[in-house]
Amino acid sequence: MTVRVRFAPSPTGYLHVGGARSALFNWLFARKMGGKFLLRIEDTDQTRYNESALHDLIRDLKWLGLDWDEGPEIGGPHVPYYQSRRLELYKRHSDLLLSKGAAYRCFCTSERLDELRRRQEEQKLPPGYDRHCRDMDVTESDRRAAAGEHHVVRLKAPMSGRTVFRDLVRGDIEYQNHVLDDLVLLKTDGFPTYHLANVVDDHEMEITHVLRGDEWIPSTPRHVLLYEAFGWEPPVFCHLPVILAPGGGKLSKRKGAASVGDYREKGILPHALFNFLALLGWSPGDEREKMTQQELVDSFSLERIMPKSAAFDETKLEWLNGQYLIESSVEALLPEVRRMLEERGLGADVAARPEMLERHVRLLKDRSKRIAELVDTGLYFWRDPDSYDEKAVAKHWQPQTPDLLRRLLPDLETVAWDAASLESLYRSKVETEGIKFAELIHPTRLAVSGLPFGPGLFELLEALDRHTVVARIQTALGRLGG
RNA sequence: GCCCCCAUCGUCUAGAGGCCUAGGACAGCGGGUUUUCAGUCCGUCAGCAGGGGUUCGAAUCCCCUUGGGGGUGCCA
Predict the structure, then answer these.
(1) Crossing angle between the packed helical segments A220-230 and A87-100, to the nearest 10 degrees
(2) Of A147, A208, A359, A437, which residue has the fewest beta carbons closer than 10 angstroms?
(3) Closest nt to A246 (CA→C1')?
(4) What's the CA gap between A203 and A218, in Å, rounded?
(5) What is the spatial distance, in angstroms and rounded to an integer, between the CA atom of A337 and the C1' atom of B54?
(6) Interatomic CA–C1' length for residue A153 and nucleotide B76, angstroms
(7) Under 8 Å between Cβ of A156 and A101
(8) What is the ipTM of this complex?
């Protein structure tokens, strides 16, 4: 049997890292098993639908490196892959259950249900629908429906006994049927609820394994009941642990970035995020930390998914990203760096000096953890420093510094402009002045970049041209005193 | 409240009853190195939530407690 899995997001906002991780695990499993990975859009909530969210979702999935075998943009044997365009199918299935007596119409108003919930809460009773319409006479139900009275369709769930299902990461999970109420299948507006649409589609699309977030566990027994009502075999369930914020608790914007797009803006590479996410709640069983997409596919298995929820450790992500940055070629990073520089208003400069872009990236990529960091700590490649790091000034801008630099200036005007020549110039200067290397090195870096850290000084000087270096030293002499 | 799930260093994890004096990675701390470190190398600290069982033997199996998470919608 071919494995068929799906990622079925609701396009209501940005792609959360939790959702991305679910998509990733489904993808890994499909690729590992030689199966199919489908993307299905669950847009059944009219009130929350958001067009741009769908666009962003698809863009972010692709950016992460995921591709689907069936779904939006490419179609497949079960088109359409948008639930909002499959309404008839759900209606037909709802009618089927109705005619079987496995579901019933409920004419209760939302006011009545609100009141009911309020009373249950007040009396500390377990909340849930009281099955008011469950035993309504079918002819009356038909008559009221025919008269156009608003209603929903509910599943007639068993009131005793128990429902057990097997979860691949946790084993058997059991629910007493009496704690499960009669869930809504079809809403007043004729749209299906998640539950109906999801079950019908998973069956129609021949989904074999449902890998989804932990938060769906409580719905699963109801889904199993639905499968039974239809007389269908349920798929294998596998609930993925949730991802928590660094300090514990729900991951949110407040507690650091939460969406794939946010990490892209911070300059995390897609492969690094992919790698990191794969290792959250799953491990290959050995001590590998940095793994290629192919290695992840090859060693992936559902059995090694952890049941425990995992905190999203951004620091470790950045470390991993730094590793990918070191490994990455300069060329591969150029487009993204260019984009970020453009965003910072340096588009014209970048266009005018492509060779500077190459130097910027080459000199900084191995010492940065994120692309945005690489960009922001290298702005001196593009414009004169507008301030000088205070601590560094206090430490390295000594009383004798200005004179030293002034005596260096003429040599800088004439020395051959390459790192090796610059270094020997500095070495000999140190010699003749009878000073320490650091006394010349640090002030130069400070004057030229405004920062106390960065790439090797002589490579940096070489990258900036002679004019710029001399001018910046003169500016610093003016601004820092001397 | 009720239902369900979970529990190894601060964090991600290895661990399938004896290979565990519990291994690795990130972070932290300490040192080396380089002209700088927000780079790099080396070293180091740190954990089986608590209590009962089962067993010759428990991080591993069972029960309870505690703690954390999720669900309890005509949201998904």
Answers:
(1) 70
(2) A147
(3) B11
(4) 20
(5) 62
(6) 19
(7) yes
(8) 0.95
